[in-house]
């Protein structure tokens, strides 16, 4: 539009002043011949203004990130509940069955994959995760465990070649006998899967298998300890729980990361208790310590020493570390509070203003 209007107004510049003889010429105009008449100028036609829609835009759809965040929070809550309480919010049902099926969920049966393997052996290492010496040692230990507890533990490792459900007929496993099938599947994220019979679930409930799978089968542990290390650690946990009296709801032992979290929780509980003991300017305020007992007790007992004691027993070095972390934090806070805030809460001297 700017270019069209520029062409429309372009032309020779008009004189700013009028000549002296202009008045005389105006009175004696001669008629203009048709040949001398100027050509008519083209008119400029502007397009009509476009209409602007005033309809408010529709709200954007809810982002998928919000849904993923909600699922992540729910999964974290389930994991915390499984570790602290000992009962998972989501119960795993025979996770090894997924490793013995196709992607479409159809059972896979390939007995030919087991050709050359002896059913008397407790380990079938199709993926090559274990050395020959480790296979022989595991078979010896698992056979001794079966003789002592009556529970059959069998291990299958697989990658691209899998026998599917044929492994159950190969070893004669069924749901009524006391048996445990560990499937080490390298095709997924978590490599450990367990199929447990009903008699074993009475002694080792789902909370034990959930924690064992998450602790030893995750990618970080496998990268640090290796595939064979993950298998041996899981077998050792199973052996420890089967040899114990009563129900084993949690995985024995505690990892380094989990121990660091429990020590931090014990220290937080000690800090709360130490601050409550210094309340009111007293050297030890017992009522306030009891008043805040539910708060520091949750950190120290539930998230700290209780978590370690459930996995290692009371007579363990890590339980002593938890108690030391609680006592150290309580003493440090008890000493630091008056240094930072003063001896608040004491009565003011006579004739003086009340201390705030």
Automatic annotation (TrEMBL):
InterPro entries: TPM_dom
Residue ranges, compositional bias (Pro residues): 46-63
TPM domain boundaries: 123-240
Pfam families per record: TPM_phosphatase
Keyword vocabulary terms for this entry: Membrane, Transmembrane, Transmembrane helix
Region (Disordered): 11-65
Transmembrane segments: 259-277, 289-310
PANTHER family: THYLAKOID LUMENAL 15.0 KDA PROTEIN 2, CHLOROPLASTIC (PTHR35514:SF1)
Protein known as: TPM domain-containing protein
């Amino acid at each position: 539009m700017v270019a069209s209007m520029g062409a429309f107004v372009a032309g020779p510049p008009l004189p700013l002043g009028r000549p002296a003889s202009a008045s005389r010429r105006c009175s004696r105009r001669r008629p203009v011949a048709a040949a001398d008449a100027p050509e008519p100028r083209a008119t400029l036609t502007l397009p009509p203004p476009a209409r602007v829609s005033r309809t408010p835009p529709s709200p954007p759809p809810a982002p998928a990130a919000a849904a993923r965040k909600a699922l992540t929070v729910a999964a974290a809550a389930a994991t915390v509940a499984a570790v602290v309480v000992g009962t998972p919010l989501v119960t795993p049902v025979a996770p090894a069955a997924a490793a013995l099926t196709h992607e479409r969920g159809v059972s896979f049966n390939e007995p030919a994959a087991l050709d050359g393997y002896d059913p008397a052996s407790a380990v079938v290492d199709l993926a090559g995760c274990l050395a020959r010496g480790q296979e022989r040692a595991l078979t010896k230990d698992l056979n001794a465990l079966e003789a002592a507890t009556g529970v059959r533990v069998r291990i299958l490792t697989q990658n691209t070649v899998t026998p599917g459900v044929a492994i159950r007929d190969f070893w004669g496993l069924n749901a009524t006998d006391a048996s445990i099938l560990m499937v080490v599947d390298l095709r997924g994220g978590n490599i450990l899967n367990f199929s447990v019979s009903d008699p074993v679930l009475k002694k080792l409930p789902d909370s034990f298998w959930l924690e064992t799978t998450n602790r030893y089968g995750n990618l970080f542990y496998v990268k640090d300890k290796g595939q064979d290390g993950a298998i041996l650690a899981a077998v050792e946990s199973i052996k420890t729980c089967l040899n114990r009296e009563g129900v084993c709801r949690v995985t024995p032992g505690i990892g380094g990361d989990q121990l660091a979290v429990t020590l931090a929780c014990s220290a937080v509980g000690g800090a709360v208790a130490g601050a409550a003991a210094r309340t009111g300017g007293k050297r030890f305020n017992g009522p306030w310590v009891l008043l805040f007992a539910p708060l520091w007790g949750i950190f120290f007992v539930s998230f700290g020493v209780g978590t370690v004691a459930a996995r290692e027993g009371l007579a363990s070095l890590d339980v002593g570390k938890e108690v030391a972390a609680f006592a150290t934090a309580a003493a440090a806070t008890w000493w630091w509070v008056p240094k930072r805030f003063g001896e608040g809460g004491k009565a003011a001297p006579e004739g003086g203003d009340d201390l705030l």
